[in-house]
Amino acid sequence: MKAPNPTSKTFRYQAIDRTGKLVKGEIDAATLELARLNLQKQGLSRLIVRQKRTKLARLVRSKHSQETTLFFRKLTTLLGAGITLTHALGIIRQTTDDTRFQAVIDAIKADIESGQTFADSLARHPAKFSKLTIALVNAGETSGTLDEMLARISDYGEKSARLTQKIRQAVRYPAIVLFTAVVVTVILLAKVVPIFSEMFATMGESLPLPTRLVMALSEFVIAYGAWLLAVVIGGFALWTAGRRHAEFRTRQDGWLLRAPIIGKLVLHAINARFARTLATTFGAGITLVPAIISAGKSADNAVFERAASQIATDIQAGSRLHTAMQKANDSLGRTVFLPMTMHMVHVGEESGRLQEMLEKAAEYQEQQVDDASEHLTSLIEPVMIVVLGLLVGGLVVAMYLPIFSLGQAV
């Protein structure tokens, strides 16, 4: 099987098809010229092709989108019913609403009809299908168990998506509350406090210290608010750009694993994804070393990827998996592979049921993510409400203190 081209890019296009209809979509190609050539082969004309800009990476990412997972689930069902691969692709194409994904399916179907393997045709679309997915499909085609392998891919995608959703739900609420608190505070300081300041200026009375502090903060926000916003946006841009550099990305991911409360949640999630990926790839007949490399990359954490790479090297040198995992922990000076994960790996190696124990380890860690998410939500919710109340309430009370003092004097 041909390896996916690491230099492949995604291009957005607008064109006219053979029927004269305007069509839009995306295509993967190494260069703009190849993208145009491939589109022309599909009978498209009057092309407008531009390279798609890269979106900002999210905290937790997965190439198994809901769309691709559903694609493989449908394909599993159709192949299981005895329908041929090309016919099944045609059926799925008709039931897909996304025009961009329709174009991908059309290209895959055309490649297969021209004699390419399913894995090779998927490899031409790295923006849609991960290297792990392509490797599993290749293993299924080679062993004659494609329908079984597609079921594995579907299960893996669905469980990975659920795991990602749990983490997003855990961090979404505090993020929304924090953002709301900042916006409300800025509005009060920039719009409401100046009204009180003008009123107090006519009173000629000495103002309490909290009131003077709030008024000074209001003046600062009004005078330098745009600069503060620019600093925040610039800092975020630098933080994001820094992830392109391996050393800085490793430090960022290390900070994330050590972060209070959220670090524990992320560590459980990474262990779950590592165990789930390793169980899927190893169970598919992929040898242990490349399976570990794939599992390390699935974690989307540079520290974990480095640990997986070290484990693969140690296994090639004759070490056992659980021993190499413990060595990776020791060399990093931190617990990356959690004790329960390593214990289940040890039991799996001793009993000859490594895949089964890896699946159990993944299920256990996923349950820990559930518990940690609930704990995080129950812990942060009252704290954020109190902080929001103190912040907004403190500003309001500070601005009414002179009025209260004036009322007492009268």
TrEMBL record:
Keyword Transferase applies: no
Stated name of the protein: Type IV pilin biogenesis protein
Domain Type II secretion system protein GspF positions: 71-194, 274-402
GO biological process, one term: protein secretion by the type II secretion system
Family the entry assigns: Belongs to the GSP F family.
Lineage of source species: Bacteria, Pseudomonadati, Pseudomonadota, Gammaproteobacteria, Moraxellales
InterPro entries tied to this protein: GspF/PilC, T2SS_GspF/T4SS_PilC_CS, T2SS_GspF_dom, T2SS_GspF_sf
Localization per record: Cell inner membrane
Organism: Moraxella caviae
Flavoprotein as UniProt keyword: no
TM stretches of this protein: 175-196, 216-241, 383-403
Any one Gene Ontology cellular component term annotated for this protein: plasma membrane
Membrane-topology descriptor: Multi-pass membrane protein
Keyword set, alphabetical order: Cell inner membrane, Cell membrane, Membrane, Transmembrane, Transmembrane helix, Transport
